[in-house]
Amino acid sequence: MEFECIILEIKEKVGLITLHRPKALNALNDQLMNELGSALKSLDSNEAIQCIVITGSEKAFAAGADIAAMANYSFMDTYKGDYITRNWETIRQIRKPVIAAVAGYALGGGCELAMMCDFIIAAENAKFGQPEIKLGTLPGAGGTQRLPRAISKSKAMDMCLTARMMDAAEAERAGLVSRVVPQEMLLEEAMAAASTIASMSLPIVMMIKESVNRAYETTLSEGVHFERRLFQASFGTEDQKEGMAAFLEKRSAVFKNQ
Ligand code: CAA
Questions:
Q1: Which one of 132, 165, 172, 254 is least enclosed by Cβ atoms within 10 Å?
Q2: Is 242 in the active site?
Q3: Is 132 a catalytic residue?
Q4: pLDDT tens-place string over residues 100-112
C-alpha cells in the first residue's frame, strides 16, 4: 500500500512508522490516521515483525488533531459521523508492542496517540500537552482518561485546564515517559528497545502486554487472577521450556515463538 502521510520501514523484526506531514507538524488528519491504522494492522499480522515503533520529526511527534480540517465541523459531523477520532482506536487492537519515540511537540491528539502506545521514549526536547481548552474544546482521544492514570489527577488537571506543556524531564519524573535521551539518540534508543523486545518470545511478549494493559481495565484482584492464568499458560509454550533450559545450561535462549 502507498502511503502519503506516514513512512513505513521494516528493520529486521521491527516495523518503524514515521508520521510525515512536515508542513503541519504531523497534525493528525483522517488520511494520516487511516494510513497509520492500515500500517499497524499490516505489521500486527506480519509474522516476521515482533515490535513496532512510531515516531515523528525532530520538531513534532504530532501537534494534535488537524485543526484546519475540523474547525467547521458541526456536532452532527462529530457525533453522527464520528469524524475526527473515528479510527483512532485501531492502535488499541494491536497485540504486538508499540513504542512511541517522541521528539518535539506531542500535543492534544499527539499526546493522546503517544499515550495509546505501550511506552514512550522521549528526546530531551519533547513537550507534552493537552491544549484543547485554548481551542474551546477538550481532549477527544483519551487525554482526560489516560493522563490521570499516567501522571496523577493533579498533574492531569493542571495540564488539561491550563494547557501548559510538560517538558521531557518533568514527563519522566511524572511517569508519562519511560526514558529520556538526547535528541540524536532517540531513534537509536527506541529501535534498540524494540530489537530487545523482538529477541524475546513473541507469544510471551503479547501475554505481558495483555496483562499489563489489564491493570488499567480491572480491579487488582481480577488483574492478579488474569496474570496468574497467563503465567500458568506460559508453561504450555515451547519457549518457556527453552528459556528456562537456556538459563540452567548457561547459554542464550533461542525462542521459536511457539
Ligand atoms: N492542526 C493543523 N495544523 C497545525 C496544527 C494542528 N494541530 N499544529 C500546527 N499546525 C500547522 C500550523 O498551522 C502551521 O501551518 P502554516 O505554516 O500553514 O501556517 C504549521 O503547522 C507550523 O505551525 P506553527 O507555525 O504554529 O509552528 P510554531 O513552531 O510557531 O508552533 C505549536 C508550534 C506550538 C505546536 C503550534 O503549532 C500549535 O499550538 N499547534 C496546535 C496545537 C494544538 O492545539 N493541538 C491540539 C489540537 S486539538 C486535538 O488534538 C483534539 C483531540 O484531542 C483529538
A1: 254
A2: no
A3: yes
A4: 999 999 999 999 9
